[in-house]
């Protein structure tokens, strides 16, 4: 009920969303405030949360995540599963290391189940803090470094510019950042670390940063647009080369600076559950395999 009040900022709207009467919701809120001895909302045309409400809402999200986790584990056990592990990942993790990890675990622990969500780093960290995820595979950025949770670097991965397979810049021997300004750009939202790093990169090259033709975090939409236009975008080099191997896109030799290159995993407890520990160990194992394969390719090319 508290989360519904927070969502709607109105007792009437919250009551309607829960098929309750407004007086009943108002009385519930008053009873809660009396019980804990603080005012949670300032009344008016719109409810305004006090700092006390922010604390309660934060813990309510965590409790909701715990409740969801409990139901998932019970359901999984009823179906004969040995447990379920909820994993959040960036695109870079979703293209190689996570699939390899899940396939190895399927062979070794066939009764272990997984839930996978792909999103931006900032959204994954929020979900993790609300106890909606057990593990994050993401970029080791400021959010991870300053969190109270455990993290470990797995791989290094830069961001590069990519385009459609027949883009004019693919025919240029050494395209420059200045060259990219002649084409429309698909950029991530302005409030994301990646967008800020892109703008800093253009500034460092003494260039005005491009106005986005489209703001998008959808890799599927981005690639479809690139196949039908001369637009440009930036993505994880690992992910971009994965799609390049299918002939869908082409990567350009323009690498982004001013953003962490470290890809790692984050988990909650010093002593994780057996199921989470299995996934962490499998990620470490697959990381070693990927690094070894990369080293072999470098030997061949040199």
Automatic annotation (TrEMBL):
<dbReference type="InterPro" id="IPR000847">
    <property type="entry name" value="LysR_HTH_N"/>
</dbReference>
<dbReference type="InterPro" id="IPR005119">
    <property type="entry name" value="LysR_subst-bd"/>
</dbReference>
<keyword id="KW-0238">DNA-binding</keyword>
<dbReference type="GO" id="GO:0005829">
    <property type="term" value="C:cytosol"/>
</dbReference>
<keyword id="KW-0805">Transcription regulation</keyword>
<comment type="similarity">
    <text>Belongs to the LysR transcriptional regulatory family.</text>
</comment>
<dbReference type="InterPro" id="IPR050950">
    <property type="entry name" value="HTH-type_LysR_regulators"/>
</dbReference>
<feature type="domain" description="HTH lysR-type">
    <location>
        <begin position="1"/>
        <end position="50"/>
    </location>
</feature>
<dbReference type="Pfam" id="PF00126">
    <property type="entry name" value="HTH_1"/>
</dbReference>
<keyword id="KW-0804">Transcription</keyword>
<dbReference type="Pfam" id="PF03466">
    <property type="entry name" value="LysR_substrate"/>
</dbReference>
<dbReference type="GO" id="GO:0003700">
    <property type="term" value="F:DNA-binding transcription factor activity"/>
</dbReference>
<dbReference type="GO" id="GO:0003677">
    <property type="term" value="F:DNA binding"/>
</dbReference>
<dbReference type="InterPro" id="IPR036388">
    <property type="entry name" value="WH-like_DNA-bd_sf"/>
</dbReference>
<protein>
    <submittedName>
        <fullName>LysR family transcriptional regulator</fullName>
    </submittedName>
</protein>
<dbReference type="InterPro" id="IPR036390">
    <property type="entry name" value="WH_DNA-bd_sf"/>
</dbReference>
């Amino acid at each position: 009920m508290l989360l519904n009040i927070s969502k709607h900022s109105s007792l009437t709207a919250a009551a309607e969303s829960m098929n309750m009467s407004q007086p009943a919701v108002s009385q519930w809120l008053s009873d809660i405030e009396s019980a804990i001895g603080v005012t949670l909302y300032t009344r008016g045309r719109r409810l305004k949360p006090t700092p006390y409400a922010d604390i309660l809402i934060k813990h309510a999200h965590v409790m909701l995540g715990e409740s969801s986790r409990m139901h998932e584990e019970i359901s999984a056990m009823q179906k004969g599963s040995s447990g379920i592990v909820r994993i959040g990942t960036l695109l870079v993790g979703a293209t190689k290391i996570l699939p390899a990890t899940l396939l190895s675990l399927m062979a070794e622990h066939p009764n272990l189940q997984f839930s996978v969500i792909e999103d931006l780093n900032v959204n994954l960290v929020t979900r993790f803090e609300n106890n909606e995820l057990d593990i994050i595979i993401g970029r080791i950025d400021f959010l991870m470094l300053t969190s109270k949770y455990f993290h470990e670097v797995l791989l290094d991965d830069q961001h590069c510019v990519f385009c459609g397979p027949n883009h004019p810049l693919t025919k240029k021997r050494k395209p420059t950042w200045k060259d990219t300004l002649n084409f429309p750009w698909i950029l991530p939202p302005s409030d994301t670390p990646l967008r800020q790093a892109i703008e800093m990169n253009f500034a460092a090259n003494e260039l005005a940063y491009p106005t986005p033709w489209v703001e998008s975090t959808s890799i599927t939409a981005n690639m479809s647009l690139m196949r039908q236009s001369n637009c440009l975008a930036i993505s994880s080099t690992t992910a971009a080369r994965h799609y390049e191997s299918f002939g869908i896109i082409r990567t350009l030799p323009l690498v982004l600076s001013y953003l962490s290159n470290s890809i790692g995993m984050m988990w909650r407890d010093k002593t994780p559950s057996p199921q989470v520990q299995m996934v962490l160990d499998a990620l470490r194992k697959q990381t070693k395999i990927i690094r070894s394969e990369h080293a072999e390719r470098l030997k061949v090319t040199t």
